[in-house]
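Q: Study each token:
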Amino acid sequence: MARRSGFVEAVSQAKRDAQQRQAAEIRAQQQALKAAERSRRELARAQAANEKERQRLYVEARIAEVESDNEVLRERVLEIQNLLVGSLGTEHEINFESLRQKFEPPDFEPGQLGVAESPPDPEKFKPAAPTGVAKLIPRAKKKFAEDFERSRQAHELAAKQHAERELHRHLQLDLAQKEHAAKEAQTRENVEAHNTEVEKFAAAYKQGDPDSVISYVALVLERSSFPEGFPVRSRLAYVPESKQLVIEFDLPDFSIVPEVASYRYVKTGDKRTDSARPATQRKKLYLSIVAQVALRVLHEAFSSDQGGFIETVVFNGHVDTIDPGTGRSIRPCLVTVRTTSDAFKEIELSKVDPVVCLKTLNAGVSPSPAELSPVRPVLEFSMVDARFVEEQDVLASLDQRPNLMDLTPSEFESLITNLFQAMGLETKLTQASRDGGVDCVAYDPRPILGGKVVIQAKRYKNTVGVSAVRDLYGTMVNEGAAKGLLVTTSGYGKASFDFAADKPLELLDGSNLLYLLAEHAGIEAKIEPPDDWKDPDSDQ
């Protein structure tokens, strides 16, 4: 009985132990499940946090990208708003010395050709001499002698090949040195030729050579740092008698003004949008650009005039674009102005409103540049020709064009009268002028724009003085005329242009006269005053 009781107790204990083990395993499994769930939740939280951080960084990157684009827009607008001011602190005079080139001889780099090859070492060719007992064996001694002879011959061959290679290297090195010397001489020659041209350019400019004055100003304008997208192209003409420079300058078109005012990132939908710059703001900014370019070019032309050759500048600003109505290329003039150095010096450019400043200078500015509304240039570039430049053509002696200076006073009067009749004016010749020119009263039959016009022409060799312009104005007032025209075979000074600036007067020089004769009367003429020509009643 006691034995059975012990057995039962053992079985019960085993059962309890099994139950405990099972319970422990269940608890362990439950703890493992809880730990796994806890890890899963932590992982999910970490992933969610990472995704949130990724989204935050992505949004920040998109916002930064948009802000960067907005900054570019702001800088672009600020750049074109300061076109004029940005040029005022720059030195525009050209230092001719800076145009010279300095000769710097190129270094000679022979490379491997400059490295001599060491001659073959005879010791490396010698066979090992027999030692010990071998020295006494005849066969060993004979073999050594044979090996020694072969080694001597091998050394002689190697030495000969080395000498040939060195000779070839020296020949190649000599050739390379000669090529380098030729290149150096050519470089020196090019530099000297360039510097000679610079010296000729400087000397010609200092003498007031018209072509050199044009080249000088062209170089000034080419060096001007305009913003990206500005064409910076120009044509120049110069009339030395009146010290008048004519500049035809290319303006940027309306697209130079950004259409977008700002960019914005919209988080919802992950997209970027932009707001359009108001049309009125774009047009105002473009008008400012047109005005600033005109004043800037005038400033650079006058301020760079170290030779004192420019007293008057005519600026015509054109834009190459497409007519939206016809699809054809057009080139309207959007701004035109003629001003003198004295008048321009009175302007404090750093403080002016560019558009108002141009009006002060009596400039013609398009009422709507964005719509390409043109203005009539104060002087057509095509009316300025090279009549003052000496003939270079070897056939010049065969030139059959009539010389206006050879005409009799009555012939010249008839010519001028016929010219303005051909231009649509009704002319009436008056008593001949004492200066050998012609006075006439004409009528422009056009309604509103027409009226009475007083015309005076002067055959002069030298610059027409301001007194002639004053006389014309007095005649115009006395006649009750709407406009006065003064035509000359020479040119005008800045005092004349200053006086005529705010009056209904138009001053046409010799180049203008030749152009009008060719354009309206079909007469190809020339102006060549005789050496003994004297201007009657001239101010000169």
Observations:
- DSSP finds twelve helices and 14 strands in the chain.
- Residues 98-206 form one domain.
- The CA atoms of residues 311 and 394 lie 34 Å apart.
- Residues 2-81 form the longest helix (80 residues).
